[in-house]
Amino acid sequence: MIIFALRHADRTAADDLSPAGRERAELLARMLAETGVSIAYRSDAVRAARTLEPLEQKLGAALTVEEVGFPGQNGIEFHIRKIVDSIKALPSDKIVAVVSHSNTVGPILQRLGSGPVPEIKDTEFDKLFVLFRGNVDPTTLLKLRYGPAT
Fold first, then answer.
1. What does each of the 150 residues of the chain score in pLDDT, given as a tens digit?
2. Cis omega (within 30 of 0) on the bond before 71?
3. What is the CATH number of the domain that holds 23?
């Protein structure tokens, strides 16, 4: 299984993408469109939805997008657990994308077996992680940067 995980693209104060964020989302779609990604998990934030929109437009019905919110007092824990459990239930040949937040991407990857994940600072929108899990032992985590540096 291959999992692409990232924080949403650059945002505005109004929970939307900035012009730089829209460019980064377009780049992400270009990068992932031919990877075979067929399912994506994202938070319920507008900025997460907008980050995936260009990829959804490119792939159409070939991409299933699941929205996972933050309900109740344990919203962050629910979000992380729901995404992790959903990914673990998928067949091992799936290619998945996860668009979440600076405080949830790391825990999601760790619970999928990545080992330590570098912190995503509030000003960082260019980190892209690629986790290889399943038949690979040990699980491998690639740490990449995409688009303009933040």
1. 999 999 999 999 889 999 999 999 999 999 999 999 999 999 999 999 999 999 999 999 999 999 999 998 899 999 999 999 999 999 999 999 999 999 999 999 999 999 999 999 999 999 999 999 876 566 899 999 999 998
2. no
3. 3.40.50.1240
φ, ψ for residue 91 (rounded to 5)? -60, 150
Residue 150 lies in a domain: no
- DSSP annotation string for the chain: -EEEEEEPPPB-TTSSB-HHHHHHHHHHHHHHTTTT--EEEE-SSHHHHHHHHHHHHHHGGG-EEEE----STTHHHHHHHHHHHHHHTS-TT-EEEEEE-TTTHHHHHHHTT--------TT---EEEEEE-SSSSS-EEEEEE-SS--
Q: What range defines the domain where residue 119 resides?
A: 2-145
Say how many domains are in the chain.
1
Does the residue 29 lie in any domain?
yes
